[in-house]
Amino acid sequence: MNVIAIANQKGGVGKTTTAINLGTALAATGLRVLLLDLDPQGNASTGLGISRADRTHSTYDILLGEITIEAAAVPTVVPLLDIVPATVDLSGAEIELVEYEERTHRLSRALARSDHRWDVVLIDCPPSLGLLTLNAMVASNSLLVPLQCEFFALEGLSQLLNTVERIRERFNPGLSIMGVALTMYDRRNRLTEQVANDVRAVLGRVVFDTVIPRNVRLSEAPSHGLPALIYDHRCLGSEAYIALARELIARLPGAPKPILEPQPARAA
Length: 268
Known about the structure:
Layout: E1 2-6, H1 15-28, E2 33-37, H2 43-47, H3 59-63, H4 69-72, E3 74-75, E4 81-84, H5 93-97, H6 106-112, E5 120-124, H7 131-139, E6 142-148, H8 153-170, E7 176-185, H9 190-203, E8 207-213, H10 216-220, H11 228-231, H12 236-251
Parallel strand pairs: 1-5, 1-6, 2-4, 2-5, 6-7, 7-8
Antiparallel strand pairs: 3-4
Helix pairs in contact: 1-12, 6-7
């Protein structure tokens, strides 16, 4: 499995929107995708139509070793896309995990015990660099960083990259940066263009060519419990995530070739 953590310690940069729509676009190519909701807010679960009443098992149970990933995973409205939802219990997990041995490897061990039925695992991380995000990075092959096109973007990115380097040294030498995705891109704003140019000047080809625009339909879709690619596959945001999926697939090491190019997703 290719395990990808979607992380940025800054909130409101589009992590969950990226996780939901990128997962949908990847599934539309024929890849089997699992989304692990590791954010106590559970927005990825809500955005894929999983009600709180239906969250019998969650990533909290997996971290505590009470259930396998296969038993916790539930299908979504998107064919080939499953999710392990999050519950509010996750908010106390960081305190509880302190008492466990190898607390940084709880998720990694759970994934190692799985039956590898999925081709790609996406982990939607919380907006912090705490123990939950650390578990995600230790368990992952690579990191995808959504980066909002705003003034403080590079400052926050520098902190994240320093954290990644420390994780490589201590816990997961195989962790790589798959790419940085520029989000909330507004071509009418001169500052947006300047930030994007600065990021590309610093990171070069690490930055994906595709940019995710500010888009009303992307914001509306979660309230309907649907990815934007189902809610409105013709909107600019959906088209951008389809293009981002193509780029990501090209960067996947040893991933199965998709059956077809990403197509507009349809609900099951």
